[in-house]
Amino acid sequence: MNYKYLSNSPCEQAVKDFISALKSVGTTYKTEVTPTRQSNGLVAASAQYARRCSPHYCACAMDGIALKSSITSGASESSPVTIKAHDYVFVDTGDPLPQGCDCVVMIEDVVEHTRGAVRLYAAATPWSNVRQVGEDICMGDMIIPSFTVITPSIVGALLAAGVYELETVKKPTAAIIPTGDEIINEVSKPKPGEIPEFNSAIFSAMLDEWGVFSKIYPTVPDKPKLLLSAVSKAARECDAVIVIAGSSAGRDDYTSSVLEKIGKLVVHGVAIKPGKPVVLGHIGSVPFFGIPGYPVSGIIVMEEIVRHVMRLLTKRRAAPDFQVKSLLTRKITSSLKYKEFIRCGAASVDKKLVAVPMRRGAGIVSGFAKAGGIITVSQNSEGIGAGSEVMMKLLKNYDEIKNSVCVTGSHDPLIDEVSDILMRSDNPMGVVSSHVGSMGAVMALRNGEAHMGGIHLLDTETGEYNTSYAKRYFPDGGVALIRGVVRRQGLIVARGNPLDLNEIKDIARTDISYINRQKGSGTRILLDYLLDENGMNPCDVRGYEREEYTHTAVAAAISSGNADAGLGIFAASKIYSLDFIPLWNESYDFLVLSSALEDKRVKRFIKALQSENLRKRLDSLGGYLCEQPGEIVFL
Amino acid sequence: MNYKYLSNSPCEQAVKDFISALKSVGTTYKTEVTPTRQSNGLVAASAQYARRCSPHYCACAMDGIALKSSITSGASESSPVTIKAHDYVFVDTGDPLPQGCDCVVMIEDVVEHTRGAVRLYAAATPWSNVRQVGEDICMGDMIIPSFTVITPSIVGALLAAGVYELETVKKPTAAIIPTGDEIINEVSKPKPGEIPEFNSAIFSAMLDEWGVFSKIYPTVPDKPKLLLSAVSKAARECDAVIVIAGSSAGRDDYTSSVLEKIGKLVVHGVAIKPGKPVVLGHIGSVPFFGIPGYPVSGIIVMEEIVRHVMRLLTKRRAAPDFQVKSLLTRKITSSLKYKEFIRCGAASVDKKLVAVPMRRGAGIVSGFAKAGGIITVSQNSEGIGAGSEVMMKLLKNYDEIKNSVCVTGSHDPLIDEVSDILMRSDNPMGVVSSHVGSMGAVMALRNGEAHMGGIHLLDTETGEYNTSYAKRYFPDGGVALIRGVVRRQGLIVARGNPLDLNEIKDIARTDISYINRQKGSGTRILLDYLLDENGMNPCDVRGYEREEYTHTAVAAAISSGNADAGLGIFAASKIYSLDFIPLWNESYDFLVLSSALEDKRVKRFIKALQSENLRKRLDSLGGYLCEQPGEIVFL
């Protein structure tokens, strides 16, 4: 409980201070000699000058005849000039220009005549079709200055100029040391409390993209002595040391104290979120980074801090962030204490880029994998309002984002299956999806923030699905429904149904812990309807307030024993081999703006909905009825 | 002379036809299983689903105490709740949530009390600071669809979800077979007519960037039988075959006929320039490419054709071309027969991107290495006028282009040395230079197409350098001169001066072959002045009309015996160990728009001009006098 507070240095300042501290202790790059043929993508450590001319001799630039241009003087269509056999020489491209000749006439323009003579119908100019010595590169010319990143054409220019090897910046090697008593190696069935190590794989892949090798050391338990010896070894063997986790100031956080024993601590704590507990320092001239153990925090720290510092060792220039103006779909609140990084889904709707903020949890690495971009909220801002124009740093190829259909709303695995079908097509196309529930879909379409939205909205008055909601929220029309599937909703319960649940009334039992879906989701609306129909009250249901965002999350909670029952679709229960008590059949359809029906991405989505391929995939998921998927219902 | 004409298929059509021909013979990708940790940058061959939840247990998300939230009910600043020792458990981040607990209170909010009890000043909400099972990823959820390129965070998401290996698209291997009797291996002193092979290195580097391995085969001489056997072997061993050179229809061009013997020819000749003579076909289902031997033609064909076809084997989506609006500085003429690719220098001047067309020779690989972008002139266009707005595909990082100073005009090696000094500085900055002669510099500055221009313009009336030209062409002012160097101009002649040249008059001797500089260059103006001074006439000088663009090109021609004398600077003669007959001292300065003097890139260039480092470098080049380099002379 003797919690030690971290400093809260602004990120740019921390990086600047750290880099100057490193420079003052002599942290710098190493060089090595590399064969030019193997140098593509490397950084030249010095300026490179041509060692010979290219071409190194006067060369014929065409297949044809070489001759002295003066003897063709006056040749024209009407009065060709005849060149005798001993006055010209047949040459091929690349041949040295024969002695006494000063031009080449290309073979297409040479007309055969008698006794080996040829005729020309146009005069040749001196030095035409001849590559002069040094036409490409002259000996002594600088081909590239220092610290140029070698490209394929630079490889060619260097080789053409006789530079067969060159001094390059040696790729540095960073040590990666995972730590933590709970961290284990990869296993297929980890026990509760065991966390299979994977941060090292993420960081190693990032380093690779920045031109840095990595060496992953065995995981060190939370024992200061062991950490000290692992760090000392790594600092001797590598050009930089990265320690994962233990970088905060808690009971088992030893990174900063270990560093202080054998090196110098420069910064502890940076004003970013996620990613605050960072340790920056050095052991001799070897940079040292203590990175938080949550993967998202770690990725942000790698990107915002480690990447910049590594440039001291790689001599690569900053790769530009690709920032694009986008429309923020939801309000973001942020603390004045931190610069905050918010991952967003990115989609191109109505020729504008929309940024859909994603869940912020520091442990949600899948969010990074799905995110199309990142929005930064500066430290002196309390947040950004919905509908604001914000700069989003793209994490995906902009063309691919533009070529993706944006499907929001209630989530169903069929969206992922359609996405896979579209990616496997001849002209791959992406699906950007976000899970905001059925009512979220209605709102997103009203704001023009998505192409289509998955909905399963029950009109509790009429028992009708989707159409009445569409009419109510779009009283002036302008929307249509694309038929999806009919799917079975029911209670997901533990395997063998040990608590003997049989109908909706049973979830009010006091021995039952229920797990609910979030407000605005179609499943939540269905639950409320079923409770009402059965004269039940939400207060009667223990766990009514415990919300999950997907069917599989509900099933996962039940599967792990953290809840006893939840309303969800059959497919989710099947994945977890759970029991399922069917209660209801519902229509899961896609709401779409009529104007978007002409969008070729939407058309392709509809075509995939209609495909036999999807029908087969849904059959194997189970619990679906496909009537007329892809049929358009105008309202 | 039985020249066989090639077809002239439009490029896009040729690629389309070729791809459908390949599909019809079953050309496709292969797959293999890869450990997820090694999969960054590879392409997933199938959709990947989570094999377990992450986290797989209810985990504490903070260091603190775990307890049942209901017992904290009512706690507030004024009335804290005391929790007895047996009602809570100390937990660390990542610990499983203890049985019976449903929340974690973070350690900072826990206040020690007596006998192991603690006090809380705020009520805890159920499930706060707890990571629910599947918070990140739920078992069964699709993590990525097929053909997704794996990123570091996808590696993390896969590992978190227990996907330790996955099916990836196997990187294909392309065979590269160089051909030609004149082609030799790398040697330091090739003889005339020998061309050391380097195209294979360029193409191999390009393939590597597209995710394709390459295997370079020994060079095959122009013998159809040998080529046939090399191609057959390569088609058996690799996934694609690339034959370099011999792809046209000349005397020694066997590529297409060899292909027709063992495979199928699909396209011979594509309407692009450079790069027309292309052979496209297949041997069984193995794609076959015959690529022209000129490096620039080859690079264009690789980029415009091979890259697209390789995607059949790599399943990578088209990388977007980064196209930017730019201002064309010079007129481009183009043939209606071809789609033409023009390499350009790219610079950011006055917040606009300027495109400076470069020399077009198909052999000029150094041009590709220097080019900042490429402009495409479509087949149905005769060209583009100067000052037009054109889309330029960038070959360099846009940020780096924006961070470069643009220096045009007469070229002097000192510009390259300054460029190296700037690249070696703490904050590397590029110099984009183009060689258009002194008068070209004046014109470029008048059009706002460069920041500064190297000039050495002799006023033949007054003997004064540069100032009078600046005043004449900028009568309203607005320009300044930045002092460069005084440099020695003289006759460059063969080593030992075997022809005994001693003064300018000697270049009129009938046994002398002179080599001149291009019109508009300062050196050309000086020559004309010297001729005039000495009562000589250009007609008296054999070779007056033979133009080169740089001092080193003049020296190279003399060094190779292709010319006897040329006017140039001492440094050029020194590089080639030639004799030098000094004739004149001239001022080489930089003309700059007064408005650009405040530009930080120009300021940095000036600072480098003033540096001791540059002075040392010029000393070692020789022939320079540094008086006040970097001094600004206002006019």
Q: How does this structure look, described?
A:
Two copies of one chain form a homodimer. In chain A, the strands form eleven sheets. In chain A, strands 29, 30, 31, 32, 35, 36, 37 and 38 form an eight-stranded mixed sheet that branches. Chain A has five domains: 11-28 and 172-314, MoaB/Mog-like domain (Molybdenum Cofactor Biosythetic Enzyme, Chain A), CATH 3.40.980.10; 31-55 and 135-169, Molybdopterin biosynthesis moea protein, domain 2 (Alpha-Beta Complex), CATH 3.90.105.10; 59-131, Molybdopterin biosynthesis moea protein, domain 3 (Molybdopterin biosynthesis moeA protein, domain 3), CATH 2.170.190.11; 323-396, MoeA, C-terminal, domain IV (Beta-clip), CATH 2.40.340.10; 437-634, 3-Layer(aba) Sandwich (D-Maltodextrin-Binding Protein, domain 2), CATH 3.40.190.290. The model of chain A has no long low-confidence stretch (mean pLDDT 94). Helix content of chain A is 26%, strand content 27%. The longest helix of chain A is centred in the middle third of the chain and has 20 residues, at 295-314. The two termini of chain A are 62 Å apart. By secondary structure, chain A is an alpha+beta fold. Chain A is built from 16 helices and 38 strands. In chain A, 56% of the residues are buried. In chain A, helix 1 (11-24) packs parallel to helix 6.
Keywords:
alpha+beta, 8-stranded mixed beta sheet, 635 residues, Molybdopterin biosynthesis moea protein, domain 2, Molybdenum Cofactor Biosythetic Enzyme, Chain A, Molybdopterin biosynthesis moeA protein, domain 3, homodimer, 6-stranded mixed beta sheet
